[in-house]
Amino acid sequence: MTQTDATPTQGPVLVVGGTGKTGRRVVALLRERGVETRAASRSGDTPFDWADRTTWKTALDGAAAVYIVPLDISPSLTPAFVEQAVASGVQRIVLLSARGTGVPGYFGPDHDGDTPHAQGERAVRASGAPWTILRPGWFAQNFTEGDFLEGIRGGRLALPTGDGRAAYVDADDIAAVAAAALTEDGHAGEVYELSGPRALSVAEVLEEIGRAAGVRASYLPIDEPTFRAGLVARGVPESAAALWAEVLRPIATSREAPVLDGVRRALGREPRDLADVVREAAANGAWG
Question: Of the four, 16, 110, 134, 201, which is 20 to 30 A from 54 by CA?
Fold first, then answer.
């Protein structure tokens, strides 16, 4: 369905997940542009808790647009939040989804594609408000400030990804697309598939980090049962360990490898390369 953009956003923008990996970047970009912005989270300047619906209405009150970083649980809470947002008068909705959403088998043969992200996308499309959906692949920042950082600092990163490749996307690019969709015309009804400009294996990413930061970490390919057992031994619940193994499968199968055009379509430029991300992280002391 073709949409027309709403009038330029008049009023504050609510960023749900405003202290997270993409949310805090969106908040920073909007505030740099002089846009009144609410950073909504349990620790943000606007109190928000997915588990406490009484916080939703207060956070949304008077907001003209909203960026939604959803809670990845099933059934998704996003449809109920979108309904509340529309009832509160929100004029634009930008949803952070994920690469592979709605694709059966993307995360393994047992997946039918009806993920929490897919449920959220359906709700946004049916909302009646102008919407934009972002579908990024794996973040480059998982190596610089996220879940792989500890292993790199320890000199060995053990993952069940084999020789699979991914076109890791810069979280700053995701935020730039979100900020554009929240404040500019031309993005309503768009689904932006976001990736970096080239595909790399985990071993190749570690080589880039070595060149940029002098940090030498080796990649150890392991199988999924070993990976899950290692997480459980460190106190991760079995359900969470299984989910981790699932979300890594698209790297192992190189489903994350194709380079996508969402950054170029949204911003009119090429996406930042992972080498640029790790050089910047090295300059900021990411690996000590």
Answer: 134
